[in-house]
Design a protein that fits this description.
GPIID_WHD, three-stranded antiparallel sheet, GPI inositol-deacylase winged helix domain-containing protein, elongated
Length: 151
């Protein structure tokens, strides 16, 4: 399964500065199921600095809760909106490589359409099953961001 291999590569890439012995150990510890690989990716996200994991969770919340695929520009705007602001601060807009890197391989940007998508349809299913665990607080956050953006 290519997706599982891709998730494994992402996991190993996060340990790139380790010794050969550490890499071998990581290889032995790689998850054998997609859900376990997704759990591993989410753990790598939460292990990042607070500002980074917050952006990753916000990105994943927007992408998983949107009724249609978001364009990169739409997602950049969504991530840059700060509740209470009267104008969009373009200096808060993140570039595509930063967004995807923070999300531990769980989101991709389709080069043909420019849309931001989850890496695989099973990723959507995973987040539907773990919505309460990861995104319970984001419904209000998304609503507040939308209200701020529209005013």
């Amino acid at each position: 399964m290519f997706l599982l291999a891709r998730l494994h590569v992402e996991s190993l890439a996060s340990a790139a500065s380790l010794t050969i012995k550490h890499v071998r150990q990581k290889l032995q510890e790689l998850p054998t199921t997609l859900d376990a690989s997704y759990d591993n990716a989410m753990q790598r996200i939460t292990d990042q600095e607070e500002d980074h994991w917050k952006v990753a969770f916000k990105t994943l919340a927007w992408v998983t809760h949107a009724f249609r695929p978001l364009s990169l520009r739409e997602l950049q705007h969504a991530l840059a909106v700060e509740p209470g602001d009267s104008e969009l601060d373009e200096d808060l807009m993140m570039d595509a490589p930063s967004i995807t890197a923070l999300c531990a391989g769980l989101v991709i940007i389709d080069k043909a359409t420019g849309n931001v998508n989850l890496v695989h349809y099973s990723t959507k299913s995973y987040f539907e099953n773990t919505r309460q665990k990861y995104f319970a607080a984001y419904h209000a956050s998304i609503t507040l961001s939308l209200a701020t953006y529209l005013t």
